[in-house]
Amino acid sequence: MTPGYSMSNRPKLPPVRPATPADIPQAVETLTQAFAHYTWTQHTVSATNFLDRLRATNDLFVRRIGLEQGRVWVTDDASAVAVWTTPHAPERTRALFTELAPLFADLAGDRAPQAARARQAMAQHRPTQPVWFLGVVGVHPDAQRGGLGRAVLAPGITAAEQDGYAAFAETSAAGNVPFYESLGFATRATVDIPDNGPRSWSLLKKP
């Protein structure tokens, strides 16, 4: 059985707060450095000007998706970032993703076809019911192994629990699966991404 996540039985976590527009530059840089060698981003983003493309993609996630339509939490120095979408305004969220889709495709560059097929493969295993959806979470490489990932995820997990909704996450790193399981998530599906893409996991934490 996957253990449930409870703030009461975890060590004291570093302080985390809601992000503000002033945090955008550092939050974007944190995510860019965290995902610079991630198999999913390397598979779905062109190698040409890769870091610039990745930085612009993360800016859209933080600025447009998280701060406009969802929730974003950061550590005080924004060395850890978590961006969620919430189930509270699904029509607005769908409209925003439709609006941003051409921008994401442009940023993918010559990997756009592979990126589209990768998203389609994962979409088949996403919940149809409303959930708190973890869009992206990252810890700057210089700050990893210090509990910041757990800390920056805790507010979103707690908010989902208080709302009575499930929380959903995806990862393309096998080593992240036990970490999510320690937070109360269970693997929903294991997906071999087309075009020799990375094996990926869909994970759900029931309310």
From TrEMBL:
Gene Ontology terms, MF aspect: acyltransferase activity, transferring groups other than amino-acyl groups
Pfam families xref list: Acetyltransf_1
Protein's name in the database: GNAT family N-acetyltransferase
Keywords tagged on the record: Transferase
Region (Disordered): 1-21
CDD domains (UniProt xref): NAT_SF (cd04301)
Every N-acetyltransferase domain range: 14-207
